[in-house]
Write the structure tokens for this entry.
Amino acid sequence: MKNIHLKFSILFTAFLTFLSFFYSCNNNKTGADKKANADSLNAMIAKGKYLAHNVSGCIDCHSQRDYNKFSGLVVNGTEGMGGEVFNEIYSIPGVVFAKNITPDTVNGIGKWTDEEIVRAITRGINKNGDTLYPIMPYPYYNLMSKDDIYSIIAYLRTLKPNNNAVPERKLFIPLATVYPQLQSNSPADNVKPDVSDMVKYGAYMVNSATCMECHTPMENGKYVISKKFSGGFHYNLGSFKVNSANITPDTATGIGKWTEEMFLDKFKHYRDPALFVSDPGKKNSIMPWSLFAKMDDLDIKAIYRYLQTIPPVNNLVEKYPK
Ligand code: HEC
Ligand code: HEC
């Protein structure tokens, strides 16, 4: 008995020594180390903010939008709170609501682990194991790099918690019928091409920004892949109607005659906040120009370079139908 006691106290002392060693190692980090860690976290958050706001549309869909302002300007202070309605306007058989993705612990994703958020973003499976409707563009995010995805998550965790409770979706079809074939098993397998290969890098950006989603026509709830990027997806928002544009390099009906400079200028034009003050009436758009406009010039140019390499599709689109 005594022996066991002795063994135990030796073990316990060893354990304490180990703990204090471990603690001191972690605490003895130099100021420079700590600063380097804080710098790299800040860089990650800044990158995540850029992706969430200006590239991947997270903040576009997961905030309140004001369609009395051009391109449904995001309402300040609502970032990440969710509640936007997605219904037949988006060819959805039912109604789906963008969720609260702020760090609120009751109604947001404050209690989700990073892995759970990764799974929702890249595979469309939420914390409870339920499948998300693919209007949440996880088939595209499925191909984003691990670094990009974790940067977005690092940024989401800095959002101000908002306790907005989002209603449950109502679908008239079983989700299994629309669950897409995913191409990647894990973001760790995905490579973000280097900017030195502008076309490949541009393809990655076009995918991350889900340009295809709005710019490809749908028939019977399915994308017409032969008409990829040729526009004509019709949106009727009540106060205005708009068709997405043909952004293939077709010279007659697409952007085949646009130079890189013209393409860049089209985006840069919308960097002017004055364009988002008054009600644009019928000449409105669902494309989140105010957010995309703030993409880096290099990223916009890369997108152009890639779009110039896709097959031209002759498809005349009337952007503002009667
Ligand atoms: C086109 C609109 C749209 C875009 C863009 C979008 N989402 Fe979503 N998201 C949704 C909708 C709608 C749902 C709810 C789907 C459902 O209920 O089936 C959702 C669900 C989620 C969920 C699950 C939350 C929960 O409580 O179940 C997370 C997490 C999420 N989105 C994060 C993101 C992130 C991060 C991005 C950007 C990388 C993003 N979303 C971009 C529309 C969008
Ligand atoms: C939410 C839907 C949506 C998304 C996402 C979207 N677009 Fe659009 N886009 C539209 C609609 C609708 C129009 C037509 C009205 C307008 O000009 O804004 C349009 C117009 C355009 C135009 C103007 C073409 C012309 O002939 O005037 C360009 C260029 C364009 N989009 C490029 C892109 C690129 C590149 C992406 C991805 C970074 C993208 N769009 C993402 C819906 C979208």
In short: The pocket of heme C (ligand 2) is lined by residues 209-211, 213-215, 242, 244-245, 247, 266, 285-287, 292, 303, 319 (CB under 6 Å).
